[in-house]
Amino acid sequence: MPMALGLLLDRLLGEPRRFHPLVGFGRYAAAVERLLRRLGSNRAAGLLAWSVAVLPWVALAGSVHAEGGWLALALDVGLLYFALGKRSLAEHARAVAVPLAAGDLAGARERLSWIVSRDTAGLDESGVAKATVESVLENGNDAIFGALLWFALLGGPGALLFRLANTLDAMWGYRTERYLRFGWAAARIDDVLNFIPARLTALSYALLGHTARALHCWRTQAPAWDSPNAGPVMASGAGALDVCLGGPAVYHGRLETRPPLGEGAPAKAGDIDKALALVNNSVWLWLLAVAAASAFIHA
């Protein structure tokens, strides 16, 4: 099955160490931004920039995919591998978990700073564990399940669309003076593409953890979260793991009061591996679901 092959490639190879395609795409998108900002910094210019940055590549992949055959299969598997970040997510999370479990709080803070945008210098052990678990749960959707769903729907072009849109949201989707209007399209399109994957991810977490508590946290806590997609994913994941997440956090020197997520004990180092196991088990659940759906369709 192409989905399993893409996941296998990610497991064996991980992210490219050199010549990462997303680095090249980021440079291309930055050039597109510089060019089209000459038209203004409004929503129309941002939507045009998004279209120029994303749609030609998706159209090219779609034309090859439509031809069928071995080339289309190879492209699909390669694009899914390109869109996935499962092994990378685990590597980054464990790079925090290992020193944290060994009592090396400074080392854990430093490695955490590589994967989150919040300030990490003042975090205690529980704060580091909480931030890492949050990152694992949220990126389970962004780096794995969103790509898997769009791959299941549209093949390699769908996975490519999701990954490029997610990348542009990370580049342009900020509520700053520079990007509030120009980046509006990138942020909203990413929200739309993530809407169903996020809820399926939240459901997967709930089914594979403390189900009743996860569903309760999803229903009662997610609406208060700023992101319409991260809220369900993280609330359900926190409930599934029986751990407390969310709460105040410092970003770029400013304290942000975030709602609480989950129930139970404060996060600790061991919860990072539990979060990774929850994501990994969810991947197996999705593979089984896709295989069952495929068998039913072709029966």
Can you give a write-up of this model?
With 299 residues, this protein is mainly alpha-helical. 72% of the residues lie in helices and 5% in strands. It has one domain (2-297). The chain has a 3-stranded mixed β-sheet with strand order 4-1-5. Strands 2-3 form a two-stranded antiparallel sheet. Helix 2 (21-36) packs across helix 3 and helix 9 runs parallel beside helix 11 (230-241).
Rg for CA atoms: 19 Å
Q: Give a short account of the largest sheet.
A: 3 strands, mixed
Fraction in helix: over 70%
Order of helices and strands: HHHHHHHHHHHEEEEEH
Strand line-up of the largest beta sheet:
4-1-5
Distance, first to last CA: 16 Å
What is the typical, i.e. mean, pLDDT?
94
Query: Tell me, what's the shape?
Result: globular
**Strand share of the residues?**
under 5%
Low-confidence parts: none
Structural class: mainly alpha
Please give the domain count. 1
Q: How many DSSP helices?
A: 12
* Strand runs, count: 5
Protein name: Cobalamin biosynthesis protein CobD
Function: Converts cobyric acid to cobinamide by the addition of aminopropanol on the F carboxylic group.
Subcellular location: Cell membrane
Organism: Zoogloea dura
